[in-house]
Amino acid sequence: MEAEAHIAVRKNRMSVLARCNAGRLQELWDRLGLDPAHKTLRGPESGLVMLRGRVGGTGEAFNLGEATVTRASVRLEDGSVGHAMALGRDGAKARLSAIIDALCQNLETAALIDAEVVAPMQEELDRADETRRQQTAATRVDFFTMVRGED
Amino acid sequence: MYVAVKGGEAAIDNAHRLLADRRRGDRSVPALTLDQIAEQLALGVDRVMSEGSLYDRRLAALAIKQARGDLIEAVFLVRAYRTTLPRFGYAEPVDTGAMLIERRVSACYKDLPGGQLLGPTFDYTHRLLDEELDGDAEVGPGRLRMGAEEPVSRIADILGAEGLIEEDLDPSPLDEPGDINQTPMEFPLSRAMRLQSLSRGDEGFLLALGYSTQRGYARSHPFAGEIRIGEVEVEVCSPELGFAVPVGRVQLTECQMVNQFKGSAKAPPQFTRGYGLIFGQSERKAMAMALCDRALRAEELGEDIVAPPQDQEFVISHCDNVQATGFVEHLKLPHYVDFQAELGLVRSMRAEHAEPRDESLPDMKEAAE
């Protein structure tokens, strides 16, 4: 159970890091003043992943087309390893995301990073989603029936 | 005898330099930025991503700039770039049911759960040119409407309960779908591989074929069951981590076309479906793709194959505009030797034609008349 919860938190953090604006991430990161020594295990390197859909939305999988992704893996001095992968070709962001992923193996550091970096960005992303949702909702058609006037 | 010739190096250099000059155009006009292209010519960018089969807005914007707005040339550039990158793996199939929806309409049900959400559509505009866009007038943001989020159900969820529409289930989830990038094309193709081809196919070609099915070639009585546009999460399975890593979102357009089906020995009468799924925002292409997908299922559904849109070889072999433009445009490359051979042939045929006919063969003459 605990492992599952840990994975869920880590996945959510990775999702925020993948979607966030690189400049904003750097800004929040710089405020923390952390600069851990690390060794690059892989990358940052850009490549392709093949995206997939499902026939009719729910059926058998099919290959839709590729997307660029960039990934990086790092190891900190204490041995913790971090990974990152995000759509696009931003190597610096992938490396920083991998460092953050590695740091978050330590629960105390994770609490700090989640509070100071991940949570604010998540809030901003959620707010942008909510604005989009409300803008779409404003284009919803409200049907009304014409009064026939027979009785 | 053929003598190899070389030449044109300086001419080619100068032509490319001239191309760069013309691409830039009048230097007193500010140069386009990639951000401007990605933001303000977004649907052109989407088309290049879709037909280039590579989701990367910035690369597509760069390709459009480099190609001077020639979208097929831009698609070509993107395809070429693609081949320089290593393939890291396959993403998990996206869940379009969980899409962050920007537009969703159905022509089958007025009041389906989630409602008709028009989104940023050209529909219902009057197609009058807007002179204001000649300048840079201030544009306000979209209006907001508060309210709780409502689940947006699929058309199949509504009709499926009564068995009125075919279900799309995954019969063998562990099977890998074929990949047209990795395997040579051999007909007949699986539906999965056909969808991959169609999704990157040329919009104009698919549109024309889809249109032809509506006009009576492989008639299939379609309804736009549902069209949705929005962003979906992409997850990639990571062997290091042992779970699927979220890597961001992509914008897709999905079309579920609902078609009449008379039934067969195996299946009762019910609605069948054609499916379209496209990178970016392009419902015209998603709809055309769904029409073509349905027409190509003729054999599977026991329908007579009577028209080109039902012919896999015809549709799939010709829907790729990079292949098509390559073969059509190669005709402008030097064919000096081939032409000399043809020239000799035509000359000798003309000489034969001009010779007086032999009167001793009246039967042949009659036959020729």
TrEMBL record, chain A:
Superkingdom of source: Bacteria
Keywords, alphabetical: Lyase
One GO term of the biological process aspect: organic phosphonate transport
Entries under InterPro entries matching the protein: Phosphonate_metab_PhnG
Coiled coil ranges: none
Entries under Pfam families matching the protein: PhnG
Endpoints of the signal sequence: none
Molecular-function GO terms, alphabetical: lyase activity
Name of the protein in question: Phosphonate C-P lyase system protein PhnG
Automatic annotation (TrEMBL), chain B:
InterPro entries: PhnI
GO molecular function terms attached to this record: lyase activity
Alphabetized Pfam families for the sequence: PhnI (PF05861)
Keywords tagged on the record: Lyase
Alphabetical GO biological process terms: organic phosphonate metabolic process
Source species, domain of life: Bacteria
Protein name per its UniProtKB record: Carbon-phosphorus lyase complex subunit PhnI
Species for this entry: Kumtagia ephedrae
